[in-house]
Write a structure and sequence with these properties.
This is Xaa-Pro peptidase family protein. Helix content is 34%, strand content 22%. It is built from ten helices and 19 strands. Helix 9 packs antiparallel against helix 10. It starts with a helix and ends with a strand.
């Protein structure tokens, strides 16, 4: 689906909400609708905004650093290059775009929102573009399959390079090199590489902790291919004999994951599916050691809609991509998480 087609779908949502325009400040949403992406790597810096109007007159705003890049994706008549007083330029465009203007308050600082609304009200309007992004089109699905294929290849390669004395940081760097040398543009997120007790930290940061025999290893890794992310977690044992705690924990996590995967199909409530994993842990008396949600959407962002937990609202729907990642964590001892991502199809699911 072209970016122009996506903008037309958004216009339909604007009409449903009786909005004249929507100011897009979320970088991933901007890319989804325009193809223009330059990473906003600094919290206090932006490479641009989109204004999508119900009338069809759309604008891409950016500064002179990105003018040539923007021209590759956007027609000249709708391209606005701001220099000084870009807020005043943006305010004028919004004033010319209609009476009811929505904006993405979740991706805008409070200071910017106050400035933009000083002269006229704007309506906080989050989730409209994300609603479109929930259901992946054919091109998105192909990009995701390529991203996950590379992730699988890396995870098959890793056990062969593990050796005693290798640190978490060293392994993290080897993983990043593999991704980049085999077609990824970058990491989807900083790799989580955790040995032994560090695996009890769900978002452990790779350290100088060395790998020793008879140790649990947790890898939560992802790459970006054709702009789309992969996200997978594997937990396994390095050594000849698994500890009893690791083996029991791994088997319970695998059972919880299977309980969900075996039941996943379109139209089933996300919350009800999440309860199946929760019930496995409850019956085993370890529910308190499952400290996060069951999963999340994956696409342009590593974490996007839908949220997948026992409090989720809404059902699984065709076109969604969602992780299933139960885990159990025992501080100071070990942690195990197993994660796959599934594509929801018309008649079931496909594990990516």
């Amino acid at each position: 689906m072209s970016h122009a087609q996506r903008r037309e779908r958004l216009r339909e949502l604007l009409a449903e909400r009786s909005l004249d325009a929507l100011l897009i400040s979320n970088p991933s949403n901007r890319f989804y609708l325009s193809g223009f992406e330059l990473h906003d790597v600094q919290f206090n810096e932006s490479s641009g905004f989109l204004v999508i109007t119900r009338s069809g007159k759309d604008y891409l705003l950016t500064d002179p650093r990105y003018q040539d890049a923007a021209r590759q994706f956007w027609p000249e008549e709708g391209l606005v290059i701001y220099r000084r007083n870009f807020v005043e330029t943006l305010k004028q465009i919004l004033a010319d775009s209609g009476a009811r203007i929505g904006f993405e308050s979740r991706s805008m600082t409070a200071e910017m929102a106050r400035t933009l609304t000083a002269d006229r009200p704007l309506e906080a309007c989050n989730g409209l573009v994300e609603q479109l992004r929930l259901h992946k089109d054919a091109e998105e699905r192909e990009a995701l399959k390529k991203s996950f294929a590379l992730n699988h290849a890396m995870l098959e390669w890793v056990p062969g390079i593990l050796k005693e004395g290798m640190t978490e940081a060293e392994l993290s760097w080897q993983i990043e090199r593999y991704f980049r040398e085999h077609g990824a543009s970058e990491l989807a997120f900083p790799s989580i590489v955790a040995f032994g007790a560090n695996a009890a930290l769900p978002h452990a940061v790779p350290s100088q902790r060395p790998l020793v025999p008879n140790t649990g290893v947790l890898l939560d890794v992802g790459c970006r291919v054709d702009s789309y992310c992969s996200d997978q977690t594997r937990s396994f044992w390095f050594g000849e004999r698994e500890s009893d705690l690791f083996a029991r924990t791994r088997d319970l996590v695998a059972e919880a994951q299977k309980a969900v995967l075996d039941r996943m199909e379109p139209s089933l409530p996300l919350a009800a599916l999440a309860h199946y994993a929760q019930e496995v842990f409850r019956k085993a008396g370890v529910e308190e050691h499952f400290t996060h949600g069951l999963g999340h959407g994956v696409g342009l962002d590593t974490h996007e809609l839908p949220s997948f937990h026992i409090y989720s609202e809404g059902p699984l729907e065709p076109g969604m991509t969602v992780t299933v990642e139960p885990g159990l964590y025992y501080p100071g001892q070990c942690g195990v998480r197993l994660e796959v991502t599934v594509l929801v199809e018309e008649n079931g699911i496909t594990v990516l």
